[in-house]
Amino acid sequence: VPEVLRKRSWQLVLLAYPLVLLVVLWWLATKYWLTNPFTLPSPSATWEAAKQMVDEGVLIDATRVTLWRVALAYAAAIIVGVPLGILIGRVRVLNQALRPVIAFFFTAPKSAFYPVMMIVLGLGTSSKVAFGFSLALFQVVIATYASAAAIEERFLWSARSLGTSRAGLFTRVVLPATAPGAVAGARVALISAIVGVYLGEMIAGSDGLGQLMMRARNSLDTPDIYVCIVTISLVAVLLDALMLALTRRAFHWAEHR
Amino acid sequence: VTATLPTRMPPPVTAPGRRGRGSLARLQDAAYPLAAIAILVGLWQAAPALGLVRRTVFPTATDVLSDLPATVTDDGFLSSLSLSATRWGLGLAFGVVIGIAIGLAMARSRFVFVTLNPLLTFTYAAPKAALVLPLVLLFGISHTSMAGVVFLGALVPVVTAAYHGGVQVNQQYLWSARSMGVPDRALPFRVVLPAALPQILTGCRIAVGFSLLNLLGAEFVVRQGGIGSFLYNNIDTGQFVRVWSIALFLAFLGYLADVVYGLVVRRLFPWTGDGA
User: Fold this and answer.
1) By the 8 A CB rule, do A143 and A85 touch?
2) Are the beta carbons of B246 and A112 separated by less than 8 Å?
3) In this predicted complex, what is the ipTM?
4) Measured distance CA(B151)–CA(B91) in Å, rounded
5) What is the pTM assigned to this prediction?
């Protein structure tokens, strides 16, 4: 990166550039290609719709509901996934027993099970959280497992020979060595949790951003559909950027692994 | 910089010094997973039987498995499945071919990268199934809309993988190819593509899973034929055991697709590592 681009003001420009370019492309598309506003409303019409939805309070409410569900699904995926990944990566018996089971659930299309979740858990928050959880969980498990299993035995041997206790091995060798890989998996899993919750809300339910979009479709309010799509995209991009920044700060020592 | 997904199971954990596998070890290899599966199926069977969950919505394993033969021979099921498969194959094929072209172009041209990267940054995290609504506005409720969702779901992972593969192509390969008389227009096909292939194949594997997720999601929402809408109709008519058995069957189908993908890739492109 050239030195001049390291200045804060330039970084802001770099951050804004994608957004500006997108809006310009969008505007050009409505001007010269998809000129029917019912198919693709202009950026300004969408902005007006967004302002109105904010004024009415629906957009903020729906975003809050969706974010809360994402937080629940994501927290559950981390709380279950990280210990499970470490166990499968470090305990041989568990690895032999569970590897095929995890492989099956990792590759099986989780959306096929969403109807089952709806039947069992109902149309409210729990089925959306369960769907987001099921998409995020296995990514956390696999990433944690991979880095826990890749710890070099000689690290453990040296720690042992320097007098580290068995419990100490876990907190002082296994956890720090697993953390960067687990966090990398957690970054991808965050997006999966968002996708799962939004998709779940689209399919059935009564609230949340996904449902707001479906209602806009039913009342043929095209600009409102795009407001919801842009909102969930922004939420995902911002949360992902936040996650990346936190990871970089916490694991700068592991950047080049 | 977009995040990349883990695509493959990490290798099994083996005990140090157990390189030569004795018959006992091989017996363990088979017995432990079987025991784990038996425990899981046992729990599934026991939960409704013991009244922990309601059997009408959470049928036992035997309820579901005994419904499976009737499910897979059902005409409606088979025609829905083949309709979805057509949409999926079409969207995936376009997504892979166009995705590779875009990704490699981004890797080899600064201009293309600067223009397209913002689009990628903003769309890679967005739920692609949501785009079924704009697609329906554009193309109506049609195969094009449904295949379009598959296409968009496949595009992002393939572009990302092809870009990363293309960036990492050893510059010396290009120099030597050129010095040996490969014309510039042939370089992408004869050097860049083969060199980036391992990463591209990994991207395709992610695309297979992603596009399935998106297609099912879109078919749940826009119920116009296909396995997603067939599944949903069974909910509407209260056929809950059927919903379970279809889900189980689709899960196996998805798992099988991934296994077959790994085998085919290993066969066709053995130099790219074990199945990308």
Assistant:
1) yes
2) yes
3) 0.87
4) 4
5) 0.89
